[in-house]
Amino acid sequence: MMERGLRLFMEGLMEEMEPALRDLEGLAEDAAPFLREMQRSLGEVVEDFDAYEAPEILPNGDIIIRRKEPLTPTEPEVTPNDDGSIDL
Fold it and tell me: Residues annotated as region Disordered (predicted)?
């Protein structure tokens, strides 16, 4: 009897969830072109995803993606003016 009760419960749950699942499927189809474009755009900015940690969401909602190995800072190229001064 417990097995039959559980089966009826699961069937009822599936019937209740069917419209929501159908809506979710439609949403995924609608979002697909946007997600493909975002993936393409991100691929132009980030050359190697393996060089980065997983995204981290800060308490204020900002999302940061850290490099696994930080870049070494380079000294900016400074070209003095004719009079020896340097433009900042």
Answer: 67-88
- Asked if residues 37 and 22 have their Cβ atoms less than 8 Å apart, the reply is no
Enumerate the H helices of the chain as residue ranges: 2-45
CB 78 within 8 A of CB 86: yes
Give the helix, strand, coil percentages of the chain, each rounded to 5.
55, 5, 40
Domain spans in the chain, listed from the N-terminal domain onward: 2-64
Q: How far apart are the first and last CA of the chain?
A: 83
Rg (alpha carbons) of the chain, rounded to whole number = 27
Going residue by residue through the chain, which has 88 residues, state the pLDDT in tens, using 9 for 90 and above.
778 888 888 888 888 888 877 777 777 777 888 888 877 777 666 667 778 888 899 999 999 988 888 888 888 788 888 888 888 7
